[in-house]
Amino acid sequence: MALQFEVVGRFNRARASKLTLPHYVVQTPMFMPVGTQGTIKGLTNSQLEDIGCQIILGNTYHLALRPGAELIDELGGLHKFMNWKRGLLTDSGGFQMVSLLHLADITEEGVTFQSPVDGKPMLLTPEESIQIQNKIGADIIMALDDVVRTTITGPRIEEAMYRTLRWMDRCIAAHKRPDAQNLFGIVQGGLDPVLRDICVRGLVERNLPGYAIGGLAGGEDKDSFWRVVAQCTAALPEDKPRYVMGVGYPLDIVVCSALGADMYDCVYPTRTARFGTALVPEGVLKLKHNAMASDERPIVSTCSCMVCKNYTRAYIHSLVTRDAMGSQLLSYHNLSYMMRLSKDLHMSIVEGRFPEYVRGFLRTQFPKGDVPQWVCNAMEVAGIDISSCCAPVPV
Amino acid sequence: MHVQAAKTVSHILHNCRQSENSYPRSYPPKTLLPFLTPPKTPTLSFRLASAPIKTREPNTNKTKSKVSIQVRLMRFVVTKPSAGAGVAGKARLGALYLGGGGAAPPIETPALVVPTRRGLPSFISRDLLDRLPYPDSLLLHLCPIHFIVCPSTRTIKNIGGVHEMVGLQDHFFIASPGDSVESLPEHGGTNKIGAAFETPSGRRLINPKDYMDIISSTRPNLWASLADEVPAWVTEKRNRLSIDRTLKWLDDCLSLDQEKGASTLGAVVGGPNIEHRKKCATEVSMRNVSGFYLGGFGLGESIEERSALLNAVTNILPEEKIRFVSRLGLPEEVLQGVAAGIDLFDSTYIYHLTLGGFALVFPLDILGEAPEALLRNSSNDYTKINLHATIYRKDTSPIVDKCSCYTCQDHTRAYLNHLLNVHEMLAQILLEIHNTHHYLGFFRSIRRALKQEKFELFRERFMESRRVHLTEAVPYS
Fold this sequence. Notes:
heterodimer; A: alpha/beta; 42% helix; B: alpha/beta; eight-stranded parallel sheet; three-stranded antiparallel sheet; 16 helices; globular; disordered N terminus; zinc (chain A)
């Protein structure tokens, strides 16, 4: 175990914590931007530090292809290669099984991919994945899990869940650097509470440094999504961090934090920036729209990031889809927004005003009071009263 | 469990690229200039001159403030007149001051005007721009044609001009019509109404009034009048027509100018014809302008005939006013321009290098190094390295040893090689930072040589060091 997890504030299930990792001390709830290939698209390390990023993600599958695990190891690990001084987390390559499924063949041994670079078969076993992640050297590494889309039903889900546990043991055995890297287990089981429960108990037995809730954020309905998160956070140990993979939208992060999750990652903020969409308290702002061409306000008037302090929507509109600079500036703002969200969640819990923060957030996103039912259900379980945010139900 | 059969490699490649590497369609553009050639073998990295380069304090959260017109006016002063004699007889040193007092130091000339796209460099955002050499990197180019589509002149005016709009209130913008990447002068479309440009949104015709609308709303510190810039191969008749039009448009622009020429660079054209050039220069000198924009260069004339044309113009232009030329981008072309008495250069050399994955490495301390040291390793391209090359995969050195730019301080050649291979935008950002830094350093070296009155020697040594790899590639006969 190479981390220390200290809860510094609570509200019911929600918690704020200080998580000490080999390279950095982070505050949760925390959003982690995704830097798939060893870089966040369009932003330098100095900008990421200015924005307040604490941990960024790298992807085993992509980095093993290019530049290659051997090379990264030879050059001293990914931190040194990228010259990133804060936290790094690597995903096992498991998600690519789902997103690039037409290239993959999953067996008990591992996953065979056809390499997109040269067409050669690439076998990713749990041992191989951990070996690669050991070479990359991130603070947190993920076990290779058998990921199945939540939209699939049937015996495949059960098979995947049990296989995940078996692969977990193989990952633990293969892990050569437990003193420097934290191996997190990933809870699978689709949307079936029984399977999820078995998986949670199995992973908890193995006494890992941290736990992730996987297999979500893939198109399942929101009401099922929050129930799985709630079930897992209730069963996972209190004194270890909980990471909901692939989340996501600010609303989802607020709800999951209320239910007791700590860490999140998603390509959404940076990807949507490259398509000209900015994150704002009310939801999203599409800078491509013609209405933006003469809008002289900043993207978000209360945002203190470099972009909102210096640029108007009209100018950004003239850049998006035309110049790389447009993508850069929007990515900068969107990530600043997510870091600010993380910070606000952390501080509001620590300062004992978490329910007020949640209510304020929901009121801004749903000014007409049309808070989705799944959010209301989730907040009830989280013990947060949001009745003042919801419009009265017509009798 | 259903598993689909794997598709062909190209399909796989296409899908991977779509999901992982999406960014705007216009980037990168399709063609590179022909002068970019890949190197065959690795090159050594050279040390820079030891003079420390000043940078500013980063200023990421500047509050907006509207600056009055008076403060924006720029004043040019020749600080070391041309020697008058010799090959480089017309080279001179100058300084650009921002009017209205204030703390900003003057910008020394000959200077590089950093190219921009809608007021910002292609890849360097304002917080990273702050870390480039100061005050050299304050000088930016503005192409009014970029604003033909949006934002509208009314919006730009409401925001307060280009300085406010792009968050670079302390920078200086020098405007000229056209740039070599996105707004190319199209002489075939130009007519008596206006000048035509090929832009990403098609061919656009702009008349003096529209041009001045953009100028008066963006409010650059200096601006060139609208010109009919023709390539070197047009007929004499067409060439004469271009002069008449350019003079007329100059007068039109001046009549629409609220500052009565105080920030105007009169455009001088004339193509490849020396007599025409002289005539145009004489005419423009008679107008009430603050400086001159030498138009029509870099559009097809050979480097040999260019010297005579440049000198024909600068011989006539008044000494005390500033001279700006576009499209003389390569180091050799810059030296040629400096020798002919040009003060400001705007070029897209850096942009094209950056897109190609090239980084400038040529030594800047030309006079300091012993001649033998420069000619050390003969089979290399001294100017630049292509970081796509596999020899850089594990090279943990910076692009240029002891370079103080952000890229060289923070990153290695190996990392840049990786970024280029996976088509990541960060590669272009880091390369543009380094290349701009390096090229600004080149201009500093030029100015230093001028101060020491060794410009001719500097130019000779520089040209020799770049030709060595060509001459030594020829086997003994």
